[in-house]
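Supplementary Note 3. Input sequence used for the single-chain structure prediction.
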Amino acid sequence: MSNGADTKSRIIETAFVLFQSYGYHAVGVNQIIEDSHTPKGSLYYHFPGGKEEIALEVLQRAERLVTENITISMAQHKNAADAFDNLLRKLKKNIFSEQGHFSVTLLALETAHVSEQLRQASVQALDAWIALYEQKLLEAGYGQARARTLAIAIETHIDGSINMAIIFEDPKYLDRARTVVAEMLTTT
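The predicted structure, written as discrete structure tokens, is reproduced below.
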């Protein structure tokens, strides 16, 4: 990776952590510059759109990481209930790790009314994850309408559980999500 790419990645990684820890509106460009040890000129060279452009890159990074985790979890198990259980176990294991988990919905809720670009990036991420869940459910034999409804319900529940775990600083909410998702998949 070139020095410029290293700088850009460092800015994104720093903003990723700061936005998750403090929220979009509480983080200023100067804090990103300071914490990433990046000159102001370098930040604006890589992100001429400033904080909003950085947040867009953070959202896209989060989408890629979560999509990869979902894809792996879904591929590891033929049974849909086992695949979702596996995904939620991984989320619980990693939510308070150094890698952590980035809540797209927390950033989306904070920025949707001020940035259509960030709102659309959040919609794109959520749609991608719902589509992966829906595909797994279709493969498991659920009908199209039921698979779509369940996929949306599962994403909503997972997201809510992640937010609860972050707010309460307690990963047990992901255990509860495992139970609820399993019940969703056994209810006809």
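The CA atoms of residues 52 and 150 lie 33 Å apart. The chain has one domain: 52-186.
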